[in-house]
Structure formats: C-alpha cells, structure tokens
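Weekend entry, working from home. Most of the wet-lab plans are on hold until the incubator is repaired, so I used the time to fold the two sequences that have been sitting in the queue since the last round of cloning. Logging both here for the record. First:
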Amino acid sequence: MDITTFITSLPVVSFLGLALLAMSLYWYKHRNIPPGPRGLPLLGFAPFFGTNPQDTLLELGKKYGNIFSIYMGPQLTIVLNDYEAIKSAFTGQADVFAGRAVGFVFRFISTGDDGKVHGITLAEGEIWKTTRRFMLQTFRDLGMGKSKLQDRILDEAEYLTNIFAKHDGRPFNPLATLMSSVSNVVSTLCFGKRFDHNDPEFVQMLANVQNTSVYLSQAGPVQSYPILRFFPGSIRTAWKALIRIGENNTAAMKANVQEHRRSYDPNETRDYIDAVLHKQREDSESAAEMNAAFHDEELLRNLSAFFGAGTETTTMTMYWSLLFMLHHPEVQAKIHAELDDKIGAGKLVRLEDRAKLPYLEAVCRETQRLANVTPFGVLRANTEETTLLGYRIPKRCFIMPNFKSVNVDPKLWTDPLTFNPNRFLDGQGKVFEPAHFMPFSIGKRACVGEALARMEIFLFFANIMQRFLIRAPRDSDIPSTDAYTTGISCRPTEFKIEIVPR
C-alpha cells in the first residue's frame, strides 16, 4: 500500500474503529440487563407512557416478562412487574434496593435554602435510617396505630358525617370534605391542631396537595430533560406552578415551626414539630453537633412530605371506596347488615369493633387492591450493581415496582378485575391478608404512615356506612371504575353521590 492510498483510507479506518469501539462499549454497558422496548433516541420510552403508565407497563410485561428495562430519557429504569420480582428485590435484597431514585424534579422540590437536598423522601444511608426510626417512634408516641389517636379520628369522622348530612339528599361531590377530614388527622400529628374546613390557610394547603399531583404529571418530562422547563408551553406552565406550590408549602411549614418555637414547652410534646425541637434542644445543651436529621431544613421537608402524602393517598382510598359502593349496592347491603347486627344503630364504630366487622374490613382491603391508589409508590434505586432474577442491574438504576401487576394477577387472585371482598375472608369468616397484598409497599422503604392510614380508612369508612346509604344521583350515570388518571396517586373521575340517613 503506497502512502497516498494509506492516507486516503485512514478516515474510513478511523471511523470504523470508532464505530466498533462505540458498539463494544454499548454492548459492555448493556450486557445481560433485562430486555425491554427501545423507545426513541434521547426520549426513551417516556412518550409512550400515556396517562396511566401502570396499564402500559402491564401490556409490556406480556411481551418482556416480570422484569424488563425502559429508558426514561437517558435514565435506565428497571420495571418489576410481578410479585416475585418485587419481593426478590425489596425483601430479598432489601439493603441494595433501599436507595431512592433522584430525578431532577424531586431533587429541585427537596432542595433547601442551603442548596442541599433534604427530607426523608430522597434521603439514604444514616440520615434516612435516623429519620425513619425517629418518625416512627414519634408517631407511635403520639398515638399512631393505637386507641390514643382514635378519638381525634372519630371527632373528625363525626364532623365529616355531619357535613354529609347537611346535603339532605341533594347530590354532592364528597372529595373536598373527605380530603379536609383526612388532612386534619395528619395535621394533629404534624402541627398539633385541626383546622376549620374553611380556614384560608388550610384551603390553600389542600389546594397545594391536589395541584402537586396534577402538575407533577404535566411536568414529568423535566425529570429527564431539565432544559424543557425553559421552553414556552404546558410543561413550563406546570413547572412554574410547581415552584409556586413549593414556595407556598415551605412558607406554611416555616410559619408552623416558628409558632411552635414561640409556644415551646420542653415538658410537652404536642406533635412532630415539638419532638424535633426537643432533639434540637438536647443537642444544643449537650454541646454536641446537631444531628443532620434534625436540622430545620430536614424538618420542613419532612412535614411537607408527610402532610402531603398522608392526605392524598388516604383521601383517594376513601374516594374510591364510595365509588365502589355506588357500583356494588349488594356489598353495601352486607356492610349495613353486619353493622346493624354487631354494633347497633346510632353508635360510633371504634377500633375495638374491628374484630366484629370482618366483612367491612374486607371491603377496605378490596378497595385498596382494586383501586391501586399508589401504583408505583415512590421509585427506588439500587445502591450498588447487583443481579436480580438472573439479570445484571447496573448501579443507580431507577427501580419501578408496578404494584398493579400484582393486584390484578390472575395467578394470585381469582377473577382479579371483579370487586369481591370475600377474597380477604378465610374459611372461618375472619380477615386475612395474603403476602402478595402490599398496598403500603414492602421492604425497608415501606410506607412510614401505614398504621395511621389503616386506622383512618377503617374508622372513616365504617362511620360513613354506619350513618348512611350511599347511592348515585337519580338520572345520572355512575362513573366507570376504569376511568382514572395517575399522578402521585391514582384518581377516579370525579363523581357525585346522594346519601340516605339510616
């Protein structure tokens, strides 16, 4: 080969060499990861998610199996699409899969005035362990999961049912009243007080909760491509709305913390804020460096997270329960018969009545199963490279459990799309929960507010059923249970009810 030929062919050889190197690197990076759809260049699979991604992922699972991969923009995401996959990850390798997926949107929302990310939602490692342990202990001390808290819930349940009664047979949408009542229970734990349902501060806080779910969904592409927040259009509008909501939330939480500092009594623990102030005081008096888990920035983000999540998810569960009652009057009739037989007319239903009301309890479980209120929970991440069900999972993948895949799996549930509370009753008519029933997730990142949510769902639903027959307004169609949208939670199409006193 003469020098001219060599020089002429050099670019071709270089290109081929670079192409081969790129292919080799791509193969090495993607070797033995779970299969999945290719998606679009740069965008990945995100444009194909639709308004209800849990259903899209169910369809993909039919082709790719119980564990597969998708790209959300540039981010490799591993979808766990049945009970075996979720259990193998979250309990079989609990420490590895206890990380949190940190996309741009949630990082921005969780960033404090100091420019650092704060709050239990995205925390990992020791600060997460300390916060979670402290939060659970504090809420237990305040009565979560115990009869100590039930009087607060029952007061709110009575207030709610009295508001329902004032509609006097006229159609109304119960969502706002449900949300206000559920939120007031959370408020007593966080802030030590309940709000009047018409309090402007409270109304704004609840609007923030509802709008966060809506705008997070609309601003979703920013999670993968932050630059999109600068382009005019619906994404930018949603992003700016999220910023306003975040500022409003932070201001509300700061105001509550400042009020607690003014009225602080070291001998009293009114709520979560007081408990944190006690820890701050202990560190100050011992001259020790304050534990990072108890800094004010952590407190503000944790208050916002618990108030928002505790309000949204339980409210949506209650809203779904009433929709299912519209569709299943025969179920409602059985609940009323059980209440009449075991409790009697005119009495409040209490936690100690649970064992007497297995069918009502089973209805609550079936509502949680079929409503899929939190179809993905909050996405996780694996903190190190690992192998799961024979596949290599590179470090720091986003991990997306599709809980709906479990809740409608015909291998686990007979006729899974049918609302049937009897599936949660054993041969003796007692309530039981199979291991694959996990409305609060499983593993080390399971919902910290599970005990509170269980109390609220039972007490609110039982006392609504105790006082009323729920029916659809005359001459109106009952909304389909298949009509819903997914944001932070899975929300049914809004509807109205009529109530008939019992």
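Second, folded right after the first finished:
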Amino acid sequence: MIDRNKIEKLINEFITGTGIFIVTIKVSTANRITVLADTMKGITIDECAEIHRYIEKHLDRNAEDFELQVSSPGLDMPFRVIEQYYRNEGNKVEVTDSEGERFTGKLKNVTSGGFELETEYRAKGKSMEIKEISFNFDQIKSTRVVLTIN
C-alpha cells in the first residue's frame, strides 16, 4: 500500500509558495489516492492537473499500481481545515456545534482559535435583529457553505 505520508510530503514539496492548501489526502488499501486541494480564490482545473502530474511523476506504477484523483473539495462538503474558514469569511454558512445544535449566518472574524457567526432572528413581536455568536473550533462538529441562488 502506498504511504499517505509519502503523498503528503510530495504534495507539500509541490505546493510550497503557490497559495494552494491541502484539505484532505486519503489512500485506500486498494491504492486509490484522493487529494482535495484549494486556494483562497478557488483552485483551478489546471492547478489540480499540475498536482496530479507531479504526484504521478514521483510514484512508480511498475512497483505499485495506483489510482489518483485530485480535485477541489466541493461546495457541499464540510470544512476540514482552517483555511476553508478564512476563504469563506463573509459567506453564509451552517454550523453544527458539538451538541448537534445548528446555526446559520454570515461567517466573520476568523482567527486561529475560532470565529463569529452573524445570525438574524426575530424576537416575539419585534423586527429582525442581528446577533453575533462566538465559536471555538473545538465546539464545532461541522461547518458548510450555504448555497444561495439569486
């Protein structure tokens, strides 16, 4: 089986200084390698192809066959790394905390320890009000972008 750490090392060699960050790397027992990568502006197909070629060039198919897929994480996937929080600052997200409670609002003030969520709610008999809720990353079960169609 191909070593996940070897793949991670190869990718880190390639992406240093490029603005690309790794979201996940998975290697199955059948040597199916899946790499999810992104940038602060959104990774391009060409950037994914470059990562793919670099990995493929540095692995020996004759010694050990493998299947390789490199792509973006997709809009419907939960966040896995802090860079995804920074990338989506200002966007509407759905947060599920460690107790299973869900919150929806605008992602704000991301730091290395957590973030704020600006939510709107209607108090009884009143107009819409804005409330900011602070979260530490250790309180979060999942965070996803909320897709809005205008």
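Plan for Monday: verify the second prediction. Strands lie at 21-27, 32-38, 67-71, 92-97, 102-108, 114-122, 128-136, 140-145.
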